[in-house]
């Protein structure tokens, strides 16, 4: 009888809450780290107020230690108001909805103004498979790190003679080295194994050649991280055929925009990809890949914009502010809602409204 009771005893002990109790490991905060932080909020255009409103609801429900300073900024303004710039400089962190940039007409992009004036030189987009969301490829987890201040986005254009426009692509060693340094540092701190530099140095031998030279120099300082290079057109082909081969990708400005949107489409769409822009002193978090749905009047009218990308971006923001437990709670809740599949917006194959997705996330918060 005693021998027969041993398995029963083991089972009882294994189910004991005392023996199974575990405590998560977190960072040791300094005194005062829990004080609420001010974050500049720019709702933006189109669906921007709808998805930033979703973030506000979730932050309030979690009692996250942040509060928002809201400013109305729109893409058709000539420039970002100075009071908004002052707020971002003071708070050092901003959450932003999409800003519509008029096509042509000589109107400057406010997104570019923010990045240049605050020197947000690194754009980061994380493209990964969400459990429960079917895609053509599995095991996709790509981080695209894009130089954010020069290249084809330098804005140096002029009309030489009527009918002939010259646009200058500017690449500097300083900006190339610091984006390469950021990419390798990111890989090192996040236990990533490989950094791939994307280029077109076979044609733009001086400009992209300088970018590659800078990446190679920085790579020698990180012998534990694999480094390779790929031409941008081959990169796009490889992305759609075998995306799981990529880990961290570092790119000049224009290529990064194209690569990030391609990777986002592969991993589930722009509506679920988080991202941000960061410099030495400031950071702006927003939807990771193209916000081309900003001006979708039908989405706005039906209130069916997907809030997932900005919710995940706000989790990145919380981690940036050193509130990791709040970031974990938010990410876990979003992933649970996606995995269950009951509440999804149209771009993910469902018919839910923005508010229905938000309500599901609120219910999933532990």
From TrEMBL:
InterPro entries: Isocitrate_DH_NAD (IPR004434), IsoPropMal-DH-like_dom (IPR024084)
Compartment(s) of residence: Mitochondrion
GO cellular component: mitochondrion
Key words of the record: Magnesium, Manganese, Metal-binding, Mitochondrion, NAD, Oxidoreductase, Transit peptide, Tricarboxylic acid cycle
Function: Performs an essential role in the oxidative function of the citric acid cycle.
Domain of life: Eukaryota
Gene3D superfamilies in the cross-refs: Isopropylmalate Dehydrogenase (3.40.718.10)
Protein name: Isopropylmalate dehydrogenase-like domain-containing protein
UniProt keyword annotation of Oxidoreductase present: yes
Domain Isopropylmalate dehydrogenase-like: 38-361
Gene this chain is encoded by: LOC115950963
Biological process according to GO: isocitrate metabolic process; tricarboxylic acid cycle
Gene Ontology MF: a single term: isocitrate dehydrogenase (NAD+) activity
Main subcellular location: mitochondrion
Protein family according to the UniProt entry: Belongs to the isocitrate and isopropylmalate dehydrogenases family.
């Amino acid at each position: 009888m005693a021998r027969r009771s041993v398995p029963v005893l083991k089972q009882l002990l294994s189910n004991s809450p005392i023996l199974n109790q575990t405590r998560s490991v977190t960072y040791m905060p300094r005194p005062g780290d829990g004080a609420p932080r001010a974050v500049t909020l720019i709702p933006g255009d189109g669906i921007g107020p709808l998805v930033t409103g979703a973030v506000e609801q979730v932050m309030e429900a979690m009692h996250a230690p942040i509060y928002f300073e809201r400013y109305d900024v729109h893409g058709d303004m000539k420039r970002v108001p100075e009071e908004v710039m002052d707020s971002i400089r003071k708070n050092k962190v901003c959450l932003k909805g999409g800003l519509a940039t008029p096509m042509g007409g000589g109107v400057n992009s406010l997104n570019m103004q923010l990045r240049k004036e605050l020197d947000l030189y690194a754009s980061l987009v994380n493209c990964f498979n969400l459990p429960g969301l079917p895609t053509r490829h599995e095991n996709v987890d790509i981080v695209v790190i894009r130089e954010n201040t020069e290249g084809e986005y330098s804005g140096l254009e002029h009309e030489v003679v009527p009918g002939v426009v010259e646009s200058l692509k500017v690449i500097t060693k300083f900006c190339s080295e610091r984006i390469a340094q950021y990419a390798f540092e990111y890989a090192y701190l996040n236990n990533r194994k490989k950094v791939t530099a994307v280029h077109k140095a076979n044609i733009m031998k001086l400009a992209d050649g300088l970018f590659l030279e800078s990446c190679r120099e920085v790579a020698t300082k990180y012998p534990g991280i694999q480094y390779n290079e790929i031409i941008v057109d081959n990169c796009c082909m490889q992305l759609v055929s075998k995306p799981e081969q990529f880990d961290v990708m570092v790119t000049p400005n224009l290529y990064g925009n194209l690569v990030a949107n391609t990777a986002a489409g592969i991993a589930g769409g722009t509506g679920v990809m988080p991202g941000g822009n960061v410099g030495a002193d400031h950071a702006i978090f927003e939807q990771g890949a193209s916000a081309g749905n900003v001006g979708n009047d039908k989405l706005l009218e039906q209130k069916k914009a997907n809030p997932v990308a900005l919710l995940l971006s706000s989790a990145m923001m919380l981690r940036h502010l050193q509130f990791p437990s709040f970031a974990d709670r938010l990410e876990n809740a979003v992933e649970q809602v996606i995995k269950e599949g009951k509440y999804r917006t149209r771009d993910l194959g469902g018919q839910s409204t923005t508010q229905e997705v938000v309500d599901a996330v609120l219910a999933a918060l532990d």
